[in-house]
Design a protein that fits this description.
- By secondary structure, the chain is α/β, with parallel strands linked by helices.
- It folds into four domains: 99 residues, Glutaredoxin (3-Layer(aba) Sandwich); 215 residues, Rossmann fold; 87 residues, Roll (Ubiquitin-like (UB roll)), CATH 3.10.20.600; 86 residues, de novo design (two linked rop proteins) (Up-down Bundle), CATH 1.20.1440.230.
- Helices cover 42% and strands 12% of the residues.
- The chain has 23 helices and 17 strands.
- Strands 6-12-11-17-15-16 form a six-stranded mixed β-sheet.
- Helix 2 packs across helix 3, helix 12 packs across helix 13 and helix 22 runs antiparallel to helix 23.
- The longest helix is centred in the last third of the chain and has 22 residues.
């Protein structure tokens, strides 16, 4: 039944990031000591230069001592809308550390970082492994003072208050927020067209023990996997294809095609035809936090989805690549894997069948670029997160050159529902061209930001109403947003007047937009589009890996141009001047996109071009 204890494989290079996390935590000063680097070199058979090369690439690791407590304050677009740059100054004063530095006592280091995945509770910061949302100056001072004074009781109460603030939600089927305070991360209701909304990826919202495999099974979990084991693998892939399930990470690629490609890839019998399945949980798109919600609340659902996917393609090993900033998700997923082994849902001869599957958790090191599937594979192999050229695609040559299937958290979380209830039931949800459901993350200038799962085809207006309606830049109720950014930093702007626009792949494409990750960031009347674009260009500049000169130099140039244009607008530049500046930036971004190897260099064109095309007024 596979109830053996999980045993680690012998040390190999692919474990190097995990060893960095452990060594840095043990150092007491949040850094990789020379001794830790030497040990990694010996353990993994790498030169000292190679070890340093990997460590220096990832933003979560440091080769120099930092403070005993590490403050990471988010400055990505949504947090910046809510004053995070000013709060960075507050944190510097309260900690005694300048941004990028350490205070003289060695107590604090302060860093400005990109998205922490707490956009509905913006602005946010992470102190060590704890995240604090809905920040204000007093909250920052209180948390840092408690840490400095080693007041454990005061710190515990501060954490408890914050957890309550950003974890509140509304149950399925309730009127969105029901006129009550929902906290800074509420589960907004589903489409108002449904009295009892259908949940697919959020079908288990409130398990008392989210990581416990027995509790999950008792709530109806693993039914899809049991049904899968009774079916031929090809029948499962056919069911996914018939359901028209598409990837929910951003690209929207048909899941059935991916599965069939991985299952059909030729591999050498001498090598045992080994295949891998990988869950991409390196969620880093600004405005997006859906995967974190699934990982924290339903980690066994993700494991079930991976089991189904692995059985369908003939894989015996899998990996969950989870971003290092998601501390609670890491804790839950780690516990869920251990529980699944104990309950016999991972390991050998699962449920008495001939199918065996081993699953490991691997942590990222703070690179947005590793959310791209081939870059993620490079990182999984223990290397710097540089992009690979396609083809070959992962299904043909992925992890260690073997056929590898990479899917997003939300995609995998949908598989148990699809297999358990069938393609026809899934096709009955959503629209003809875009069936099923989607988790949307609602943030920005909204009365009650949050998340929810809606059937595809829900309108922007329904999403805005579910979040309590639009606000202006001063926090006052507004008739509608000035603009909406769909899909995060790598997404597209649409006018706030497009409230009847349906969140459907085909309709969005016709409107010059895209669904992307499901992020919906509202910019209220009075909010500066150019300030938002400056934050977006800063994000791409920060996250460029530097391998491609056009991307490395180009993203820096775009950020500089965005700030200059914002300054011109504040000085009274007219609309034609601003539009001409945006068009020039878009033309530059197009040249960068054509010369870049990976999607990051190809992304700045999307918000720029859509702003010029879809907006009639530039603030």
């Amino acid at each position: 039944m596979g109830k053996r204890a999980y045993t680690k494989l012998m040390d190999s290079r692919d474990r190097i990031l995990g060893s960095f996390h452990a060594a840095q935590q043990e150092s007491g000063r949040n850094w990789l000591t020379p001794q830790a680097l030497r040990e990694a070199s010996a353990r993994y058979g790498l030169s000292g230069a190679a070890v340093k090369g990997v460590a220096s690439y990832y933003s979560m690791f440091s080769l120099a001592p930092r403070g005993r407590h590490l403050i990471r304050l988010c400055v990505s677009p949504v947090c910046r809308m809510y004053g995070s740059l000013d709060l960075l100054d507050v944190a510097a004063q309260a900690s005694g550390a300048e941004a990028g530095g350490t205070d003289p006592s060695g107590c604090f280091s302060l860093e400005s970082v990109q998205c922490l995945g707490r956009c509905a509770g913006a602005p946010a910061m992470m102190v060590d492994d704890e995240v604090y949302a809905a920040l204000d100056p007093e909250k920052i001072r209180s948390v840092l003072s408690a840490l400095r004074e080693r007041d454990a009781q005061g710190l515990a109460s501060a954490r408890a208050r914050d957890d309550a603030a950003y974890a509140a939600h509304i149950g399925p089927g309730a009127a969105p927020c029901a006129g009550e305070p929902c906290g800074s991360e509420a589960q907004a209701g589903a489409s108002t067209a449904a009295a009892e909304p259908v949940r697919v990826a959020l079908r288990y919202p409130r398990l008392a023990e989210p990581a416990d495999a027995g509790a999950y099974e008792g709530a109806g979990g693993f039914a899809g996997f049991r049904k899968a084991l009774a079916s031929p693998p090809e029948a499962l892939i056919e069911e996914m294809s018939r359901a028209k399930l598409r990837g929910r990470g951003g690209a929207g690629f048909p899941t059935g095609i991916k599965e069939r490609a991985a299952a059909g890839s030729a591999c050498s019998a001498d090598e045992g035809c080994e295949r891998f399945v990988v869950c991409n949980a390196d969620e880093g798109e600004p405005g997006t936090f859906k995967d974190r919600i699934i990982l924290e609340r339903s980690p066994q659902l993700l494991i079930e989805g991976m089991l189904i996917s692995a059985y369908a393609v003939g894989a015996r090993r899998g990996y969950i690549y989870l971003r290092g900033e998601y501390s609670l998700a890491i804790e839950r997923v780690r516990a869920a894997i251990a529980s699944a082994y104990e309950a016999g849902f991972l390991g050998e001869a699962l449920l008495g069948s001939a199918f065996s599957f081993d699953l490991e958790l691997r942590l990222g090191g703070g690179s947005y670029l590793c959310g791209e599937e081939l870059t993620l594979i490079e990182s999984l192999e223990g290397k710097r997160g540089y992009p690979r050229i396609k083809p070959p695609f992962p299904a043909e040559s992925g992890l260690w050159g073997k056929p590898t299937l990479v899917n997003n958290v939300e995609t995998l979380a949908a598989l148990p529902w699809v297999i358990e209830r069938g393609a026809d039931a899934y096709l009955a949800l959503g629209t003809e061209g875009s069936p099923g459901t989607k988790i949307f993350c609602l943030s920005g200038d909204l009365a009650r930001p949050g998340y929810g799962e809606w059937e595809m085809g829900v309108t922007l207006g329904e999403l805005i109403r579910a979040a309590g309606g639009a606000l202006d830049a001063q926090g006052r109720p507004a008739e509608r947003p000035y603009a909406l950014l769909l899909g995060g930093a790598a997404g597209c702007f649409v006018s706030g007047e497009a409230i009847e626009l349906r969140m459907d792949y085909d309709e969005l494409k016709a409107a010059g937009a895209s669904l992307g990750s499901g992020a919906v960031i509202a910019l209220g009347p009075g909010r500066s589009l150019l300030d938002c674009l400056s934050a977006i260009m800063d994000f791409f500049k920060h996250e460029s890996c530097g391998k491609c000169v056009p991307c490395r130099v180009g993203t820096s140039r775009l950020a500089k141009a965005a700030y200059a244009l914002a300054a011109e607008a504040k000085a009274g530049a007219g609309q034609e001047t601003i539009k001409a500046g945006l068009e020039a930036m878009a033309a530059d971004a197009e040249r960068i996109a054509k010369a870049s190897l990976c999607p990051l260099g190809q992304s700045p064109i999307l918000p720029l071009k859509s702003a010029v095309r879809n907006l009639t007024y530039y603030s």
